[in-house]
Structures are given as structure tokens and as C-alpha cells.
Amino acid sequence: MSIIPEIATVIEKRSLDKTHSLFRIVFDSEKKRDSFTFRPGQFIILSIFGVGEAPISITSSPDEKGFIDLCVRKIGRLTTALHELEENSKVGIRGPYGNGYPVENMEGGNLLIVAGGLGIAPLRSMLRYALWHRDKFKQVSIAYGAKDVESVLFRGEMYSIAERKDIKCLLSVDRVEEGTLWKGHHVGRVTDLLDMIDMPLKDTSVAVCGPPIFYKFVLRKLLDLGYSKGRIYMSLERRMECGLGKCGHCVVGHKYTCIEGPIFTYWDAINLPEIF
Q1: Fold match between 6-97 and 103-271?
Q2: How far apart are CA 166 and CA 182, in angstroms?
Q3: CATH topology classification for 103-271
């Protein structure tokens, strides 16, 4: 894996809400397009020439060949510059980095995905992987919560998944503004959705991602329901930095998020109290 960025082109830019956009990116090199592979949960380092670089989780499935999708929130200098790019603009990409979800250990069992807010971005890769390989999993369920209807990322896509018969997709928002159409299942906390999911605890892997306060309540709820601590996988994509473990900004206790993460189990969280 080269640490020199590969040149790529933004072939599509789609607004998801006021601050989030989806960018579809294609490597200029045909050889790189054909050879690039990754695991759900891994990330790339995106470069904008003359501005800088930043780590971003891949939100498409490894099975979707020829491109990668990135869901990016406009929050800082680089992400603002990215949102200002026009389609067909050039960027640099290096990676993938991180460990990703242990899909080989998850296949053959049940899968529960729990997302909060922007946490759906890295989990979308795992979700789409599971849908692509639906025959490799038993029950598949997703519980996704956001603060309001406009904040539900990939809203149309999630509505469509909720209509499928081979997966249970539950959506929740904290509040619904008057006059706003909400086609989800609940108004309240995402933890309430977990009570609506009847999934065997045995052989169930749980993939979780959301803001820090989200982890506090969701992890407690999962443990109260009896899910295995060793099979609760958390994405700490917010901790990612250079991808190489060189800058030291990703260090949590004795672990480097860029190298040993960003996917950690609940057992890791017990031994690394500062992980959030």
C-alpha cells in the first residue's frame, strides 16, 4: 500500500442535508480501480491539493466495484473545501487503512446494526455488504436514530430498505417538526428501537457507530438485553488521523486507532476507559 496519494475524480456530488454530502469517487488509474479493495469499516485519507488531507470512512460496499462513496460533513477547512469542489474535480486518495469489521467472523450468524446520526456513514458499508451477501447471514436488523427527519441521512434509501422482507429496518427521530412527513417507525430514542427487535442473542454480532453520548446509552441497553460483550463492534472513526500511526493523535491508551482500529469490541472499551 503506497503512502503517495492516487489521483482520483469526483464523478458525483449529492447533497444529503444542509451539512452532509455524498461524494462518489473514481480512481483515474484503471489498474487502481480494478485492484482497490477494502473491508467494511475501513477508511481512506482524502487529499485536496493545496488544502490538506483528512481521514474519511468508506460508505459504499466492497462489492460495488469501480468507485467508492464518501459521506462527508461540512465542519472544517478541508471538508468545506471538499463541499466547494465541482463534479469532475481531482482529489488524492491513499489507503485503505484500519482493521474494518471482522466479516469472516460475523458471517453465518445474525447481524444487528445500530447507528446514530452520522454514524450511519461507516455502517452503511457494513449494511450494504450484508445486503449484497444476504445469504451469508441469518437475521439482519438495523436500528437507526437521528435528531429530526431532515437529519436522517440516506433517507430514501433507508425507507426502501425498511420495505424489504428479508431485513428488519427500524428508524427513529428525536422529534418531528409540525408539517413534516415522517415515514419511520418511532419518535423518541434509538434505544427504544432495540426493544422492537426480536433477535436471538446467540451468534449475533452488533455493529455500532454514533456520537459519544450515543455510545453511553446504546452500549448500556445492549448489555441489559444480553448481547455478548465480545461481539459488540464499535467504530471509532472520529479518532482516525494520519492512517499510519505516525502523528500520534489517534492514540487511545496503548492502542493506535488508525492501525488497531477504528473497529473495537466492547472488551476494548472496558480496558480503555478514555476510548470515547
Answers
A1: no
A2: 23
A3: Rossmann fold (3.40.50)
